[in-house]
Amino acid sequence: MRIRLLTFLALGGWTATAFAAGGSPHVDVKFAAPEKFTDVRHDSTSTGYDAGYLSELVTFLERQAPARVAPNGRLTITFTDIDLAGEFEPWHEGRWADVRIVKTLYPARLHFRFVLTDPSGAVIRSGERELSDLSFTRLPGLAPDRLRFEKGLLDDWLSQEFPKPRT
């Protein structure tokens, strides 16, 4: 069984730390002030953020990023803003009020900083990225997943930022 401890930091962010098998010692995902993120809500009436979405992003990155990080290296990603694909359109009423409408007008937007370090802690690469794709609805082969567009952006970024070495 996989166990994860999500700890709320005094600085107003979440950090995810894996304590059991299944976590990645090579990837650390953080969320700086998630209560200020543009849109990580489960429904139209929520005022905060849905920690379930954040947890899914952590799990995704823990699975995908290690293949691109050198052995004993460490990739730290700190999200500074997230705007999920789609929007809750306020003019819909009744059962449609809490349906996230996904169309090209509402692309996912992910803002984050990253630092890749070697085993000694020396910085190999770092930067700040803002990911978005206005043609996101045309991406083929995305699994039916509630964060498929966000995960697609992250997967594309990982493959471009950290290409696997040729063998």
Keywords:
6-stranded mixed beta sheet, alpha+beta, two-stranded antiparallel sheet, 167 residues, disordered N terminus
Could you say which overall geometry the principal axes of the C-alpha atoms support?
A: globular
Listing every helix as H and every strand as E from the N terminus to the C terminus, the arrangement reads: EEEHEEEEEH
| Arithmetic mean of pLDDT | 75
- How many helical stretches? 2
Helix/strand-derived category reads alpha+beta
Distance between the ends: 35 Å
Largest sheet: 6 strands, mixed
Report the sheet-strand fraction: 25-35%
Unreliable runs, pLDDT <50, ≥5 residues? 1-22
Our count of domains comes out at 1
- Helix content class: 10-25%
Radius of gyration: 17 Å
What's the β-strand tally? 8
Strand order of the largest sheet: 1-2-3-4-7-8
Structure description:
The protein has helices spanning 51-64, 148-161; strands at residues 4-8, 14-18, 27-31, 74-83, 87-88, 100-101, 109-117, 123-132. By secondary structure, it is of the alpha+beta class. The protein has one domain (4-161). The protein has a six-stranded mixed beta sheet, with helices on one face. Strands 5-6 form a two-stranded antiparallel ribbon. The longest helix is centred in the middle third of the chain and has 14 residues, at 51-64. The chain is globular. It starts with a strand and ends in a 6-residue tail after the last helix.
